[in-house]
């Protein structure tokens, strides 16, 4: 096919599908834990990392990874301090991340054009080096989820029961926050920092509308995310659109269609 004659598009599809699998898998846990806003918080931190990399001369992608992980750990520390109001930790880190990003961007006025590709994603931005990092850390994230699936399941649905059964809840939460941060940072090259949280939440939201079991929720979420990414990359290539926005609009359309169809089916039964 014509689109795959371009090496940058091959890299974009590899990175995009990897990001789709990672975000949609993590997203099921995030939504069930009622932490949907955590994606926004970590994406703002990754934007600060991108800006820091551009300002201080190191690769912005690595800055996104570092800042996202640090933000995830900070969220866990603050959640322990605000046990009754855990969402405060996420909101504070989100605000601090955005504030840091704005200050760093204002200090490095000359790189605003380059920053655009990190904000909204870019088909041409993914390098062979990025593919290696995304593949390596992506496999690490998936392997972590598989190995800790029972602990994550228990902590997601009832932390108190998980604690009584001997599961180190604090350690599991901290580790989950770190792999969520890695997922966010690994996805910014294709989707962009401003829209990556949508790819975490929307496919998971679709799956929770359709799934009849915990396992099927992952398959449906993965399928929606991969379809959205593949279709979004095709459309953005031929119409010269920002890939992040196109991908998110397709995923949103799928969610709205599912909601409308379910509503129609219910009315038909009544």
From TrEMBL:
InterPro entries: ABC_BtuC-like, ABC_TroCD. Keywords: Membrane, Transmembrane, Transmembrane helix, Transport. GO terms for biological process: response to zinc ion; transmembrane transport. It holds the Pfam family ABC-3. SUPFAM superfamilies: ABC transporter involved in vitamin B12 uptake, BtuC. GO terms for cellular component: ATP-binding cassette (ABC) transporter complex. The chain crosses the membrane at residues 12-32, 52-76, 88-111, 131-148, 169-188, 194-211, 218-235, 241-261. It is found in: Cell membrane; Membrane. Gene3D superfamilies: ABC transporter involved in vitamin B12 uptake, BtuC. It is a multi-pass membrane protein. Belongs to the ABC-3 integral membrane protein family. This is Zinc transport system permease protein. It comes from Thermosediminibacter litoriperuensis. The lineage of its organism: Bacteria, Bacillati, Bacillota, Clostridia, Thermosediminibacterales.
């Amino acid at each position: 096919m014509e689109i795959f004659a371009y090496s940058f598009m091959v890299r974009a599809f590899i990175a995009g599908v990897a990001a789709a699998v990672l975000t949609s898998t993590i997203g099921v846990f995030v939504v069930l834990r009622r932490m949907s806003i955590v994606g926004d918080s970590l994406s703002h931190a990754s934007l600060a990392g991108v800006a820091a990399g551009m300002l201080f001369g190191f690769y912005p992608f690595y800055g996104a990874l570092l800042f996202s992980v640090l933000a995830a750990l900070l969220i866990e520390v603050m959640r322990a301090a605000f046990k009754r109001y855990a969402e405060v930790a996420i909101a504070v880190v989100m605000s601090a991340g955005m504030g840091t990003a704005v200050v760093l961007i204002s200090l490095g006025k000359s790189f605003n054009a380059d920053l655009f590709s990190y904000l909204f994603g870019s088909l041409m931005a993914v390098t062979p080096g990025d593919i290696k990092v995304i593949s390596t850390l992506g496999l690490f994230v998936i392997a972590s989820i598989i190995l800790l699936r029972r602990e994550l399941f228990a902590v997601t649905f009832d932390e108190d029961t998980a604690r009584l059964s001997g599961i180190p809840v604090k350690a599991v939460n901290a580790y989950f926050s770190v792999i969520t941060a890695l997922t966010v940072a690994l996805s910014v090259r294709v989707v962009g920092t401003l829209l990556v949280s949508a790819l975490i939440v929307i496919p998971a939201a679709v799956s929770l509308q359709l799934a009849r079991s915990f396992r099927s929720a992952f398959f449906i979420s993965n399928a929606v995310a991969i379809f959205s990414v593949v279709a979004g990359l095709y459309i953005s290539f031929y119409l010269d659109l920002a890939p992040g926005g196109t991908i998110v609009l397709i995923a949103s359309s799928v969610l709205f269609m599912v909601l409308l169809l379910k509503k129609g089916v219910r009315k038909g039964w009544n």
